[in-house]
Specification:
Order of helices and strands: EEEEHEEHHEEHEHEEHEEHHHHEEHHH
Structural class: alpha/beta
Strand content: 5-15%
Largest sheet: 7 strands, mixed
Length: 485
């Protein structure tokens, strides 16, 4: 045992630090060993076995971590220190000081060592998982930042091209001398080069991100749309209620909406942020979804939100979905009535003015039969439309007149224009060939009309000469018949 003079004194008084020359005992009692005398250089005490550090205001394990290097230490007392009040105190001490036989004057059992080892492993796993989550969050933050920068660069490039084209038109109409017309193009090319270099520099990081968090699928960047082609598990796909699009062109989103409603049948809430929704007509594309209960269009990156009537148009066009909320605000019956008053005439005009063949080409197969039935009812009653025929317009929930209001993406519009140009070119070539062929036929006919009188005279003369000698003509005919056989 340690002599009493080496033990901590009563009444809170500090006893001097004392070392037994045999290297067996060390008693340290100061006002704060954590502040004054941190245990260190245990290599200078190779025979240290018992260490008493009670009531030394030790609050951090780092203050005594160096004691783990002592292979001879078998007994340590740390009671009375703030560290001894921590829940992890005993397990941490036993894990790092495997050589101890006693802690705070109590013998250490094998079960306690095992429990300390298990707790330490769990703590290490918890720390690794926490570190992993921290790294993932940081990577996510950097990736989203990179996607946002690339989106901004892309938007700036589009703005520069648009501005360049507009300035070119203005310069062509207003230019007096030819020197100023090319000034802006040099600047545009230099800026375009700078933007391209910036994009190449950012391409080191991921350019898109796909994340499922709770019941929400987050899609960042246009590359994330390709994830809709992957094989999603039924359980994961079934839990997705909300789909959030960020930093993706709306026209690109429109192309994957059919996949979206198939992959995630329970999707009922769409969110759009930085998606370039600039006109109300674009909301027509959302009609192809299975169902939409909530719609959120963030003002950031979606100029359409600045229009006063955009919510009413959404309610009108997507009336068959019975929207519950738009941008977090409950939809009331008054809103629905107001939407019908504002835009109801639009659908009526669109459906009544459009030719029947064009109308049928726009409607889906499920609505064509119903629409033909409606036209038959109109024909029978001379323009009087009954309530049944009005109800007949509604097939699959969507009103046929509203279905006329669709949206064509810029890319599809360009493809259609190219297709129209090709058709025009083909028609022009075909008509030219027909005209040329008709002209040739007419020329031959005119030539025949000129030559025919003389040809007729020669035919009659040859026939008369040929049959003048009856016997010779008969022999000639028999010879021809024989030759044919």
């Amino acid at each position: 045992m340690v002599p009493s003079k080496f033990r901590p004194g009563g009444g809170g008084r500090a006893a001097p630090s004392t070392v037994n020359n045999c290297g067996l005992h060390l008693v340290i009692q100061t006002s704060s060993v954590a502040e004054r005398n941190k245990p260190k250089d245990v290599d200078t005490l190779p025979c240290l076995q018992h260490l008493f550090l009670s009531f030394n205001n030790i609050s951090s394990f780092d203050n005594i971590l160096c004691l783990a290097d002592s292979s001879s230490l078998s007994d340590i007392t740390l009671d009375g220190n703030p560290i001894a009040q921590e829940t992890w105190y005993k397990n941490t001490i036993l894990h790092h000081m495997m050589q101890l036989r006693q802690l705070d004057m109590k013998r250490i059992t094998e079960e306690e060592r095992r429990m300390a080892s298990v707790a330490a492993r769990k703590e290490e796993e918890k720390k690794r998982e926490s570190h992993k989550q921290t790294l993932l969050k940081e990577k996510k933050r950097l990736t989203i930042g990179n996607i946002a920068r690339q989106w901004e660069i892309q938007q700036n490039r589009v703005a520069l091209v648009t501005s360049s084209n507009q300035d070119k038109k203005d310069s062509d109409s207003c230019q007096i001398n030819g020197s100023a017309a090319y000034e802006f193009h040099e600047e545009t090319r230099s800026l375009d080069t700078i933007l391209s270099n910036a994009v190449q520099g950012l391409s080191v990081l991921d350019s898109h991100l796909v994340e499922v968090e709770g019941d929400t699928l987050y899609l960042y960047g246009s590359g994330a749309l390709e994830s809709l082609d992957r094989n999603w598990s039924v359980q994961t796909a079934g839990t997705v209620i909300t789909v959030s699009f960020m930093f993706i062109e709306f026209d690109e989103i429109v192309q994957v909406l059919p996949k979206l409603k198939i992959r995630f049948p329970n999707c009922a809430h769409l969110k759009f942020k930085e998606t370039n929704i600039v006109m109300m007509q674009q909301f027509n594309a959302l009609a192809q979804m299975r169902r939409i209960e909530q719609l959120t269009v963030d003002p950031q990156g979606n100029p359409v939100v600045n229009f006063t009537l955009w919510k009413y148009y959404v309610l009108f066009r997507l009336n068959h979905f019975n929207l519950q909320k738009i941008n977090g605000t409950e939809v009331t019956q008054n809103d629905i009535v107001m939407a019908e008053r504002l835009f109801g005439i639009l659908a009526h005009v669109a459906s009544s003015e459009l030719p029947q063949y064009r109308l049928l080409s726009l409607l889906g197969e499920s609505r064509k039969k119903q629409f033909c039935y409606m036209l038959e009812a109109k024909g029978k009653k001379s323009g009087i439309v009954s309530e049944e025929s009005n109800d007949g317009r509604r097939v699959g929930g969507e009103n046929a007149s509203r279905a006329i209001l669709n949206y064509t993406t810029r890319e599809l519009h360009t493809e259609k224009l190219e297709e129209i140009k090709e058709r025009e070119k083909f028609c022009q070539t075909y008509i030219q060939d027909l005209v040329k062929e008709a002209a040739d036929i007419n020329m031959k006919n005119e030539s025949l009309q000129k030559l025919w009188p003389q040809m007729f005279i020669e035919l009659v003369r040859d026939a008369v000469i040929e049959i003048r000698n009856k016997n010779s003509y008969m022999k000639l005919c028999l010879q021809r018949i024989t030759d044919q056989k």
